[in-house]
Design a protein that fits this description.
Length: 310
C-alpha cells in the first residue's frame, strides 16, 4: 500500500482520481486549464559572437613505438646541444689561449729583434775594430812609383814598379799584374806579362818588378814620347781576402836635361797642365792680366813621325 502511494505522489496523480483540468476553483466556478503543449526549442546560438564555441583539444596518447622514437629524438637533441655548448666553450678557450700565445710571440719577437740588433751592432763594432787592427797590424801595400831605365835611342827600355809593404806583417800570396802601353800607331805599341805574378813582400820592406820593351827605341818613337805620344805603365795588385787595387802611371814629358826631382812618371789621374798669369802695360793700374794655358808651339797640328824616317 505504501509503495502505491509513493508512486502516486511521484506521478502527480491526485489520490482521489481527479484530473487537474476537471478541478474546480472555490466558489463553484470551474476554471478551464490550458492544454498541455510541448515547448518549442529555440534556435541554436552556439558558435556565434554572443555564444562562442569552445573546443578543448587533447593529445592522443603515443604508442610505445612512437614514445620510444620521440625519446630517442629528444636524447639526440640534448646530446647535440651539450656537445655544441662544449665545443663553443672549447673554441672560446682555444681562441683566448692563441691570443695570449700570439701576444707572447710578439713580445718574444720584439725582444729577439732588439737582441739581434744589439748583437749585430756588437759584431759590427768587432769587425770595425778588427779592420782597424788589421790596417794597423796587417800588411799595407802601395805602389811607391814607376821609373824607366835605358830610355834612349837604340836601347830597350826597362820599366820598373816599386811595391812597398809599410805594415808590420808580411804580405803573402800577393797577385801583381803589369803592362806598358803607348800611343804609337806602328811598330811595338806595348807589352804585358803573360800572367799575374804571385809574390810575397816582407814587412816594412819593398820589392821591384819590371817589364821590358819588346824592341830597341827608334829616334822617332823616342822623340814622340818626349813630346806628345802617350806612354803609360798600369796593372793591379791584390792580397788575399781584399779587393783588387789598380794603378796607372803615365810618362811625364820633359825637354832634356830633366830637372832634378821632376819624376819621369806621374799618376794617370794627375794633369800637369798649367794656367799662368801674364802681366802687360796699359791697364788702369799700369799692368794687365791675361789668362791662358802654356802649350808647345809645335803642338798646333802635330803628326807622329814615321819610324825610320830621317
Amino acid at each position: 500500500m505504501r509503495k502505491m502511494l509513493l508512486i502516486a505522489l511521484i506521478a502527480g496523480i491526485p489520490l482521489w482520481g481527479q484530473f487537474p483540468a476537471a478541478r474546480k476553483e472555490a466558489g463553484g466556478i470551474q476554471r478551464k486549464q490550458p492544454p498541455l503543449t510541448t515547448p518549442q526549442p529555440q534556435a541554436d546560438q552556439r558558435g556565434t559572437k554572443e555564444s562562442p564555441l569552445i573546443i578543448e583539444t587533447h593529445n592522443r596518447p603515443d604508442s610505445p613505438e612512437e614514445a620510444a622514437k620521440h625519446k630517442a629524438e629528444n636524447d639526440t637533441k640534448e646530446y647535440r646541444d651539450r656537445w655544441t655548448l662544449r665545443l663553443a666553450v672549447v673554441s672560446i678557450l682555444f681562441t683566448g689561449i692563441m691570443a695570449i700565445f700570439t701576444a707572447g710571440l710578439l713580445v718574444v719577437g720584439w725582444r729577439g729583434v732588439n737582441a739581434a740588433r744589439a748583437t749585430l751592432g756588437a759584431i759590427q763594432q768587432q769587425v770595425d775594430h778588427m779592420a782597424i787592427q788589421s790596417d794597423i797590424l796587417g800588411p799595407r801595400l802601395h805602389i811607391e812609383g814607376v821609373r824607366v831605365s835605358d830610355f834612349e835611342v837604340g836601347k830597350q827600355p826597362w820599366f820598373f814598379i816599386k811595391v812597398t809593404n809599410s805594415g808590420p806583417k808580411a804580405a803573402e800570396d800577393v797577385m801583381i799584374s803589369m803592362r806598358v802601353e803607348s800611343g804609337l800607331s806602328t811598330g811595338t805599341v806595348g807589352a804585358k806579362w803573360k800572367k799575374e805574378q804571385t809574390v810575397t813582400i816582407p814587412a816594412n820592406s819593398s820589392r821591384k818588378y819590371f817589364i821590358k820593351w819588346a824592341e830597341r827605341l827608334t829616334d822617332d818613337a823616342y822623340q814622340g814620347f818626349k813630346m806628345f805620344v802617350p806612354l803609360s805603365v798600369s796593372g793591379y795588385y791584390k792580397m788575399r781576402e781584399t779587393q783588387q787595387v789598380e794603378y796607372c802611371y803615365k810618362y811625364n814629358p820633359c825637354i832634356e836635361p830633366r830637372p832634378k826631382g821632376v819624376p819621369e812618371f806621374i799618376p794617370c789621374d794627375f794633369d800637369p797642365g798649367l794656367t799662368v798669369l801674364i802681366g802687360a802695360r796699359g791697364s788702369a793700374h799700369g799692368k794687365a792680366t791675361v789668362t791662358g794655358t802654356l802649350t808647345n808651339a809645335d803642338d798646333e797640328t802635330p803628326s807622329p813621325p814615321e819610324p825610320g824616317a830621317n
